[in-house]
Amino acid sequence: MKEFFAKYRKEAALAGGLLLCLFFFFVNPLGLDHRAKLVLSVAVLMISWWVLDAMPLAVVALVPLVIFPLLSINSIKETSKAYSDSVIYLFMGGFFLGMAIEKWNLHKRIALSVIKFTGTNGNNIILGFILSTGFLSMWLSNTATTMMMYPIGASVIHVISKHAHPQANIKNFSLTLMMSLAYASNFGGIATIIGTPPNVAYVSHLNAHYKHGVDFLDWMLLCMPLAILLLFTLYLVMVKWLYPNHLAHSMEGKLYIESELKEMGKLSRQEKRVLVVFTCTALLWIGKDIINASQKLIQLDDSLIALLGAISLFIVPSGRSKEEPDERLLEWGDTRNMAWGILLLFGGGIALAKALEEAKLIQSLGEYIAGFATTNTLLLIFVVTLVSVFLSEVMSNIAQVIVMAPVMSAVADALHINPLLLGIPMTLGASCASMMPMGTPPNAIVFASGHIKLNQMIKTGFVMNIICVILITLFSWLLLPLIVPHFLE
């Protein structure tokens, strides 16, 4: 029986989603009107297929384009507008910047330079990887960052293992380094809007439903200190508490880092040009409010800036060789491995959320939950964060935020509190899954290395989950009203 379900897992997941959908349509346990019943049934179908992994997430996200017109929920013209929302282009621009950094090996230089700066004893190597991985993940997707850093980490483990002192615990060192890559990618990604897809999904919801959105600088002011604190907490938990490695300074490790940097040589012309484009884009994100306030001719927003940076990469010549004088920093062929499915996922989530809102289901659900919610704001934030962190262990964090964002806003509106007090911890918690390999793609990547056992990841992840819940709760409760007070108006 077990083998049968393993063989037909996808079919069972598809059938399970359809049965749940039909149950909500024909039984109508909530007593909804016809249109609301249709929308809820489609929502149940999509969410169940996301959770059960019945089909790729992006494919499930295309369901509204077919089902909504067929059921007269919305025309295909109206539904398709969600798939061209401006926030999708914000993330697309971030993808292009990340690909350029990866193409010209700027990420590798940054990582090796940080490790050289921190030193080459066991603890310092771990700290170097945590800091460099966390920094890269602030600007690239957490999955891409882990994929970039994984081979570097594996090489360092190989070199250190061959020349380590007999008293050193190489197993703990290897385990810590691999898990740190995944966790640092997850934690670093919460620092910026483009660092991880859930952030983009939530900001899209805010900008669509509230007069005052959260811009790039607001997000960084709140979440970057939290990300940095989580990165240093990760270091202390891993090397000082759970997995001490007793690995003294390694001359071989130092020589490996120096040889890699020497082989790379000085900053290439391409690296310099990518760095200039990236820096200019980041500065525009940070300073756009000052630019907009100082003149009326050009008004910038985050999506426009991201596209400006991305298009620049296809304009600026790489200058790599005389044989290829027309080559640019990015060519269209470089985009073949881009995660286009993530962009479709955003579109499907936005389309679903809009339909739920128009059917007044989100408002009704928020008012229902608010009837049971505590008036203790700190406790409510804690519960939302706790549920979000542990739910993301078994559910796609993007799909989770897409589904939960409108619900959290409806609860906050019903309780007449700042919507960010529930939305931000829900969003950040969704990126902090640390216990299970399937929690986030970075977890799965490092688990496949063979250096980590499942019980080790569960134990370490549980500790980090609890720490994340506590820190996210306190940061949201104490700092949110200070950094984005306009949401309290």
Largest sheet: none
**What's the count of strands?**
0
What is the structural class? mainly alpha
Mean pLDDT, to the nearest integer, reads 81
The SSE order reads: HHHHHHHHHHHHHHHHHHHHHHH
What fraction, in percent, of the residue positions are helical? over 70%
Instruction: Give the N-to-C terminal Cα separation.
Output: 58 Å
Shape by Cα distribution = globular
Beta content? under 5%
What does the radius of gyration come to?
23 Å
Helical stretch tally: 23
Low-confidence stretches: none
Would you give an account of this structure?
- With 489 residues, this protein is mainly α.
- It has a domain at 86-337.
- The chain has 23 helices and no strands.
- The chain has helices at residues 2-7, 9-26, 34-52, 57-60, 63-70, 76-80, 86-103, 106-118, 122-137, 142-163, 170-189, 197-209, 216-242, 251-264, 269-294, 302-315, 340-358, 361-370, 377-391, 397-415, 420-430, 441-447, 454-483.
- Helix 9 packs antiparallel against helix 13 (216-242), helix 12 packs parallel to helix 17 and helix 12 (197-209) runs parallel beside helix 20.
- The protein is globular and about 70 Å long.
- The N and C termini lie far apart (58 Å).
- The mean pLDDT is 81.
